[in-house]
Amino acid sequence: MVDADKGGESTLTVLVALGINLAIAVMKAFAGVITGSAAMLSEAAHSVADTCTEVFLLTALRRSGKPADARHPFGYGKERYFWSLIAAMSIFVSGAVFAFIEGFRTLLGPPEEQTQPLVGYVVLALAFVLEGVSWLRAMRQVRAEAAESGDTILHHLRISDDPTVKTVLLEDSAALAGLLLAFAGLGLHQLTGSSAWDGLASLAIGALLAAVAYTMARTNLGLLIGQQADRRLLAAVRSRLAEQPEVDFVVDVLSMNTGTDRVLFCARLDFAATLDSTELERAVVRIDSMLRAEFAELDEVFLEPVPREDPELRARVLARYGHPL
């Protein structure tokens, strides 16, 4: 089942990011109007997109925690992946597209005069501090989760089945980079008198947001279409199954993430031929209970007795994995 403490920490991380992004969006929009900077307006759209993202992530956290029912017997955990995918689309549509439009408008249109750049610098500095607070909050949670599982931060981000904190960290990292790009565009515009630098900064912000949106979408795509559980978990479970006295051979193992820290696990086992039907039933019940007690991530466990020599099963496994039983 989902760790309640972890879920609460994820919610707090998202709420912190939501409040900060909303405040920053208002400041950037004000500065963009005052300075006439395309990069600043693109950054305002960036923060609006991030604010929408946090709303989608809060929806994901709330709806994915609903208990299983007759219509959804494996629960609603995958809703977290769906709403995180919608958040990625929001970043692209609300942020990247607007930044590209502003960039091309500035580059292809008549030269624009810059006004009161100091306002832009002050707003960018304040935004950097606030975004840094949100980034540190997300990084602190990611670092703690990585340490708990014995991973590096990068490896944890790559294999994590919780897209919410990963999304916050990615968008906050992109926000900090975007602020530096906006600062460069604003400064070069002031130094050279050419608004082309402002337009180029806006295009760079758009490309940055598009890259973040793509990364988020790819992550959630894999989880939505039925990505297998962490390989280390599967190896540990398979090893425990092979150690059981009633099991002669672990024929096949199937798994799927049905939510954050929730795994659907199926194993096909070749049980000892000496077991009668009653002993086989008792062995299945015992092994099921043992796995659930030792591996909290296993939300549903299915154990199927099959002979190792089954030719049809062997062919299916070969087709799926490309190696013999």
Summarize this structure as a short list of keywords or feature phrases.
mainly alpha, Cation_efflux, 325 residues, Alpha-Beta Plaits, 3 strands, single chain, disordered N terminus, elongated, Alpha-lytic protease prodomain-like, three-stranded mixed sheet, 2 domains
SSE layout:
Elements lengths: L3 H32 L2 H27 L14 H30 L8 H33 L3 H7 L3 H30 L3 H29 L6 H13 L3 E13 L2 E10 L5 H18 L3 E8 L5 H11 L4
Parallel strand pairs: 2-3
Antiparallel strand pairs: 1-2
Helix pairs in contact: 1-2, 1-4, 1-6, 2-3, 2-6, 2-7, 3-7, 4-5, 4-6, 6-7
Distance between the termini: 31 Å
**Total discrete domains:** 2
Helix content: over 70%
Count the helices. How many? Answer: 10
Can you tell me the residue ranges where pLDDT is under 50 for at least 5 consecutive residues?
Answer: 1-5
Beta-sheet strand percentage?
A: 5-15%
**Helix/strand structural class:** mainly alpha
Q: Architecture of the largest domain, CATH level 2? A: Up-down Bundle
Average pLDDT number: 86
Strand order of the largest sheet: 1-2-3
In short:
This protein has 325 residues and is mostly helical. Helix content is 71%, strand content 10%. The protein has a 3-stranded mixed β-sheet with strand order 1-2-3.
